[in-house]
């Protein structure tokens, strides 16, 4: 039977991961092998996704901002080869933020496509009650995705389109954008409050996600090699953000503020719950020896030479 890390070591490894450390750094901090830390992160992350699906329901959110975070799996989209898996290349994590409680009620990691946008908005609709005001950026598929999920009368939808100024500094390339030249706000459906049409808080959460999840940090070699690893890492991050990490603005966790739980979770509580969702052992007790194994005792006498 395979060895099982002590629970304290597993918590120590997960703590290193949610604090933005790489797999190797988490292995050094926890004293575990890096492959073990990798498998642990995937298992806990997938368990966190199940916990999120079970616990985050009936969210009362008045203002919601939607944004997405870019990363890649395996290699950049423009460098993909014909024999690469179809999930290689650019990947996006779409997420929604309740600006009142700072809760992330819904997220989805995958390709940036109209189909993915519809699936994301449908998941958001299932978790949010009432008629919220949703703010999106200028990506065209957002509007159709909201219409299919909320309907024309089920949401107040506003869009924000920002025009950036390219500085074109030498050595930076086309990715060097300067300040925002102009911002255009448009009421799409319903009667959204013009002053609350914004994606600024979601963009700030974008930074928090990159700082606390090493796989999403730009200009490093910490990118994911498999889509499952990335999906699990994002699930771990948002579950930790919602239930464990105390938000400085509201003074508690977003889950407490949103009324989804009556206390701030500890990391130990999160890891244990996630492992239980995956059917993995959670206690300190080591696995039992196989039945066919005979333990040697002093009654057996000395072995013959």
Topology:
Blueprint: H1 7-18, H2 23-30, H3 34-55, E1 59-60, E2 63-73, E3 89-98, E4 106-110, H4 114-127, E5 128-129, E6 133-136, H5 141-150, E7 156-166, E8 177-189, H6 200-212, H7 227-243, H8 254-257, H9 267-277
Parallel strand pairs: 1-5, 2-6, 6-7
Antiparallel strand pairs: 2-3, 3-4, 7-8
Helix pairs in contact: 1-2, 1-3, 1-9, 2-3, 3-7, 3-9, 4-5
Summed up, what is this model?
The chain has 305 residues and is of the alpha/beta class. 36% of the residues lie in helices and 19% in strands.
Describe what you observe in this structure.
With 305 residues, the chain is of the alpha/beta class. The protein has one domain (7-277): Nucleotidyltransferase, domain 5 (2-Layer Sandwich). 36% of the residues lie in helices and 19% in strands. It contains nine helices and eight strands. It has helices at 7-18, 23-30, 34-55, 114-127, 141-150, 200-212, 227-243, 254-257, 267-277, and strands at 59-60, 63-73, 89-98, 106-110, 128-129, 133-136, 156-166, 177-189. It has a six-stranded mixed beta sheet with strand order 4-3-2-6-7-8, with helices on both faces. Strands 1-5 form a two-stranded parallel sheet. A hairpin with a 7-residue loop joins β3 and β4 (106-110). α2 (23-30) crosses α3.
């Amino acid at each position: 039977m395979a060895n099982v890390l002590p629970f304290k070591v597993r918590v120590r490894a997960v703590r290193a991961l949610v604090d933005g450390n790489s797999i190797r750094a988490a292995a050094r901090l926890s004293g575990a092998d890096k492959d073990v830390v990798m498998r642990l992160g995937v298992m806990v992350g997938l368990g966190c996704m199940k916990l999120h699906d079970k616990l985050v329901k009936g969210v009362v959110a008045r203002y919601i901002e939607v944004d997405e975070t870019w990363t890649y799996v395996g290699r950049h989209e423009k460098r993909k080869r014909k024999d690469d898996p179809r999930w290689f290349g650019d990947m996006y994590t779409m997420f929604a933020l309740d600006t009142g409680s700072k809760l992330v009620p819904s997220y989805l990691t995958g390709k940036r496509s109209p189909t993915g946008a519809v699936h994301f908005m449908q998941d958001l609709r299932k978790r949010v009650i009432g008629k919220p005001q949703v703010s999106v950026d200028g990506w065209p598929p957002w509007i159709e995705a909201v219409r299919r999920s909320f309907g024309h009368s089920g949401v107040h939808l506003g869009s924000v389109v920002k025009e950036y100024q390219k500085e074109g500094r030498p050595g930076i390339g086309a990715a060097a954008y300067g300040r925002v030249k102009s911002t255009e706000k448009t009421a799409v459906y319903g009667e959204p409050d013009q002053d609350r049409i914004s994606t600024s808080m979601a963009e700030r959460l974008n930074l928090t996600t990159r700082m606390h999840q090493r796989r999403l940090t730009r200009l490093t070699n910490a990118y994911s090699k498999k889509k499952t690893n990335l999906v699990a890492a994002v699930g771990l991050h948002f579950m930790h953000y919602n239930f464990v990490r105390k938000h400085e603005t509201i003074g508690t966790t977003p889950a407490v503020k949103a009324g989804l739980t009556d206390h701030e979770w500890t990391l130990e509580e999160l890891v244990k719950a996630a492992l239980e969702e995956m059917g993995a052992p959670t206690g300190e007790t080591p696995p039992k020896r196989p039945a066919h194994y005979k333990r040697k005792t002093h009654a057996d006498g000395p072995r013959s030479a």
